[in-house]
Amino acid sequence: MANNCKDCDRLQPKCLGTGPTRPIYNQPTMYDHFNNFQKFKQIREEEEFIEKRKEDLLKFNSTFTNFSLNRVINRDEFEQLSTQDIARFRRQLSMGNWDHLLSEQMPDAIGSGKITRNQPTPNRCHHQLWALTRTPVQCPITACNRTIGITFVLSHYLRDHSDDFGVQCQEILSGKRTILIFKPGNLEFRENMCLGVLAYGGSGDERCDCPAERGLCMHNSFLPKPQENYDAHLAILIMGCRTSWMATLCNKELEEELINRKNVFQEMIVIWLASVQTTKAIYCTVTVYDKLMTSARSSIMRVRNLSDSQNPSVFWSTDANCIRLGRGEIEILSRGHTEDIRMEIMINEYEPKQLKEQPQEQESQSSQPQR
Fold first, then answer.
1. Which helix (H) or strand (E) holds 198?
2. Model confidence at 61, in pLDDT bands (50, 70, 90)?
3. How far apart are the two ends of the chain, measured CA to CA in Å?
4. In this predicted model, what pLDDT tens digit does every residue of 5-58 receive, in sequence order?
5. DSSP H helical segments within 250-291, as ranges?
6. What is the pLDDT of residue 33?
7. Which residues lie in Low complexity bias regions (predicted)?
8. Whole-angstrom Cα Rg for the chain
9. Cβ distance 193 to 187 under 8 Å?
10. Distance between CA atoms of residues 68 and 188, nearest Å
């Protein structure tokens, strides 16, 4: 009787006399017992999954990198941790476990040279994204200065700045050119303005060639319906600002005294490209020229990170990733402020491995005896 259900035994009426027993209450059936057991089992599995997940997230601290040790902190330490600490633990686990599994499951492929640790694979590209920062950035437009997420940059400009500031978005592929026209007189003094937005789609028209699909950047979110096909593109901002040569002075008080906004001989236009952080450097070729194509100025630069300072008075004197137009060049390109300035932009991705192989080929050719 020890294994009997107490509820069933309580509902079962006692036998009186020699007559048959008649149940007064509805006794629970085996189906009721099984249904209750399934609910209890599901709740227990959920609790075990949560506890296991906590152990996986908290298995290593920030100073430990040996993945053979299984250390679990107590509940008091877990309550004191922040979400940033847990995210850092998850990143260490995912990246470390991938290297550990790659060396254990495919040792022959690694030893033979078919697969290398630096070779881009789908899993490797996915884990490279963990190294990118998720910190929100500030809109580089001085009149806006909003804080936006790294996946909302393209959506922010398509929704908020397409009508207010007249910012246009163009799709561009690697090695292809796009042309933009702007008026130098529309640039305000020491105010960043966005001249245009480029949706970089990679080297081809296929979906797999897009930067986000190749693990170059994060996917875009909350895009307008007409631009939903840009979800895997990289948003590149074309920025421009009118500043002064006096910005290089270390003494800011002296700088404010010498700067004269009405003095055209002090003016200078700084043009640069900016984007979110990527796993590989993106380069661009910017060429500004006049309407008749008689004068031009070209520069090869790297796309700047939006997480860095976007104040041209700070970086233009030390950073080569921008093009600077002095007063004389502005007069020539705009023909005395009567014409617009044309700007041609090309985006390229340079592979470091290809640049290293070129000297070896030249040495092999030079080592051959001349006949």
1. strand 193-200
2. very low
3. 106
4. 555 555 555 555 565 555 555 555 555 666 677 777 788 887 777 777 666 655
5. 252-258
6. 64
7. 361-371
8. 32
9. yes
10. 59
pLDDT digits (tens, 9 = 90+) for 278-287: 988 899 999 9
Taking only the tens place, the pLDDT of each residue in 109-151 is 444 444 444 444 444 455 577 778 888 999 999 988 889 999 9
The answer to whether the beta carbons of residues 233 and 201 sit under 8 Å apart is yes
Residue 42 corresponds to which tokens in the numbers above?
Answer: 């599901």
Report the amino acid identity of residue 54. Answer: K
> Residue 136: CA atoms inside 13 Å, Cβ hemisphere, count?
9
Establish how many alpha carbons lie within 13 A of residue 225's alpha carbon, considering only the half-sphere containing its beta carbon. 0
Within 10 Å of residue 160's Cβ, how many Cβ atoms?
16
Side chain identity at 22, as an amino acid letter?
Answer: R
Two structure tokens written together for 307: 């997480």
Instruction: Kindly state the helix (H) or strand (E) to which residue 56 belongs, with its residue range.
Output: helix 30-57
3-class SS letters over 68-102: CCCCCCCHHHHHHCCHHHHHHHHHHHHHHHHHHHH
- From residue 27, give the alpha-carbon distance in Å to each of 7, 15, 20, 34: 9, 16, 17, 14
What values do phi and psi take at 283, rounded to 5? -115, 155
Cα(206)–Cα(53) distance, rounded to whole angstroms?
38
Neighbouring-strand partners of residue 345: 178, 286
Across 120-134, 187-201, 263-277, least confident range: 120-134
Question: Which of 199, 109, 114 has the alpha carbon at shortest distance from 162?
Answer: 199
Q: How far apart are CA 84 and CA 28, in angstroms?
A: 50
DSSP letters along 190-240, please? T--EEEEEEEE--SSSSGGGSTTTTTSSPPP-S--GGGGGGTTSEEEEEEE
Determine the Cα–Cα distance for residues 78 and 86; give it in Å rounded to an integer: 9
| CA gap 153, 227 in Å, rounded | 13
pLDDT at 177 over 60: yes
